[in-house]
Amino acid sequence: MKSLPIVLLALELAGSGSASPATPLVESPMVHMMQFLSGRLTADGKFQDYSSGTTRGLHIDIQGAKYSDGFELSEDEFFSDGEEQRKVWTFNKAVDGNYIGHRSDLIGVARIREFDDTVELTYTARVQAKSGVYNLNFDDRFVFENASTLTNSVSVSLLMIPVGKAALTIHRAGP
Questions:
Q1: Is residue 35 classed as helix, strand or coil in its secondary structure?
Q2: Whole-angstrom distance, CA of residue 74 vs CA of residue 123
Q3: Can you tell me the distance from the alpha carbon of 121 to that of 142, in angstroms, rounded to the nearest whole number?
Q4: 61 and 84 in contact (C-beta within 8 Å)?
Q5: Pick from 6, 28, 36: nearest CA to 171
Q6: Which CATH superfamily is domain 29-172 in?
């Protein structure tokens, strides 16, 4: 499966398993993440495809912008084998106060959970591969490491069978 996409909040991306909620931050982790992701950022890491046994390097140029009750995140993804993808996320605050993520290739919406210094996204996306189109499940986990670094781990599965994973480190880009 050559074109398994990566999402930050996208981005596609997820912790395998879920952490237990701990003492919540005074500021919501999602609000903190929207502030962190505003402006230009870069992400670097690797994607491992279990079906082919390959690992590809991945660089992502990210542009984030807040708006009235939401956030937009554009990702330009560059894989080490030359493949390129563009993803655009929108995150909106729902009536219940939680956030919901949208992207053109999603089936349904991205569900967002937040606790401590962590934001988790779960979603299903239509992914084009050489052998056809697959509905893959993504579990993205974003963790604030410090004021300038956010890590993103992603687990990808098909019918509950793990098919890949990614690990990314996200940094604010220079002016």
A1: helix
A2: 17
A3: 8
A4: no
A5: 36
A6: Calycin beta-barrel core domain (2.40.128.20)
In the chain, DSSP finds a helix count (H) and a strand count (E) of 1, 10
Q: Rounded CA gap, 101 and 110, in Å?
A: 5
pLDDT digits (tens, 9 = 90+) for 97-109: 778 999 999 999 9
Q: 147: which residues sit within 8 A by CB, 6+ positions away?
A: none
Contact present, 1 and 131 (Cβ < 8 Å): yes
Q: Return the higher-pLDDT residue of 29 and 126.
A: 126
φ/ψ bin of 97: left (φ > 0), alpha (ψ from -120 to 50), beta (otherwise): left
Q: Is the pLDDT of residue 4 over 90?
A: no
Question: Which tokens belong to 12?
Answer: 């596609």
Structure tokens at 30: 């999602």
DSSP state at residue 36: H
Taking only the tens place, the pLDDT of each residue in 117-143 is 788 999 999 998 888 899 999 999 999
Distance CA 102, CA 115 (A): 21
Q: What mean pLDDT comes out for the span 146-163? A: 91
